[in-house]
Design brief:
Layout (H helix, E strand, L loop, with lengths): L1 H4 L13 H26 L10 H11 L8 H21 L4 H18 L6 H11 L2 H6 L5 H19 L13
Helix pairs in contact: 2-3, 2-8, 3-6, 3-8, 4-5, 4-6, 4-8, 5-6
Length: about 180
């Protein structure tokens, strides 16, 4: 019975942020994803490289919309993505014919290593998974996947977060670096 009581929750949902905070979050996400998308479609796509991955959408939510969250800080953004990418590529290369196993190992190991290194960034789980279930284009990158798109894309989004999140006198990013 106590087990089921835990599922009730203990409080209320947080209040909606002020409209100006929503606008700043929108602007940051728009510019951050625009910068990474521009690099993909106008610079790298011609070279058969990939620059944008789905997990960047979730990172945008954190680094532009939840800027005070420990999960949104630069150490977590960069470290979480890169660690997860390395693990995802390793798992895919170790078990290319057992995608179900490689996927499960990639995500679970990425979570464990992010926790061990204090770099927990939830989109990192998706980054590890994309390395396993991604397209042939992603698989062909091998460990380059950790640098382009993952490292470079996360770094571009971080630069935009630093610039946009600090324009408002009421916002400050980051809370910490290390």
């Amino acid at each position: 019975m106590n087990y089921l009581k835990k599922m009730k929750g203990v409080g209320k949902s947080p209040a909606r942020p002020p409209a100006i905070e929503i606008l700043w979050s929108w602007l940051g996400a728009f510019l951050g994803i625009s910068a990474v998308s521009y690099a993909h479609y106008n610079l790298l796509d011609k070279n058969d490289l990939v620059m944008i991955i789905g997990s960047f959408g979730a990172s945008a939510v954190l680094i532009y919309g939840a800027i005070k969250s420990p999960l949104a800080q630069p150490r977590n953004l960069i470290g979480g993505h890169i660690i997860s990418a390395i693990i995802g590529v390793f798992c895919y290369q170790a078990f290319p014919e057992l995608t179900w196993l490689a996927a499960a190992l990639a995500v679970s190991t990425a979570i464990a290593v992010m926790l061990l290194t204090s770099t927990l960034h939830p989109p990192g789980g998706a980054t590890a998974l994309i390395a396993v279930i991604g397209s042939d284009k992603i698989h062909a990158l091998g460990y380059l996947y950790t640098l382009i798109p993952v490292g470079l894309g996360a770094f571009i989004m971080l630069i935009v977060a630093l610039l946009i999140n600090n324009l408002s006198k009421n916002r400050r990013y980051p809370e910490f670096w290390f």
